[in-house]
Design brief:
Elements lengths: L9 H14 L6 E5 L2 E7 L2 E5 L3 E6 L2 E6 L3 H11 L6
Antiparallel strand pairs: 1-2, 2-3, 3-4, 4-5
Helix pairs in contact: 1-2
């Protein structure tokens, strides 16, 4: 299981989040980083952005911002908001 990370490089934040999403059955994840920003495509219409400190996404017009230091909580919250039973 991936561990929580403190503010870090966007690639580290996305790697940790992706690991927890994969544990919950989301396996078609695509990530890219460039400098101080990273993006993770989770499914159609759901994209997570990070600067290594905060994870951000928008579902149904509502924006969610959570600390990148807690990828477990972020993964559970994201899946719940997506309406999944994987949390």
């Amino acid at each position: 299981m991936a561990k929580a990370v403190s503010p870090c490089a966007p690639s580290d934040a996305l790697t940790a989040l992706a690991a927890h999403l994969e544990e919950r059955g989301l396996t078609r994840l695509y990530a890219a980083t460039s400098g101080h920003v990273g993006v993770l495509s989770v499914e159609a219409g759901v994209t997570v952005w990070t600067n290594g400190k905060v994870l951000c996404w928008r579902i149904g017009g509502a924006e969610t911002r959570l600390p990148a230091a807690d990828p477990v909580y972020a993964a559970r919250t994201l899946i719940r908001l997506m309406g999944g039973a994987r949390a």
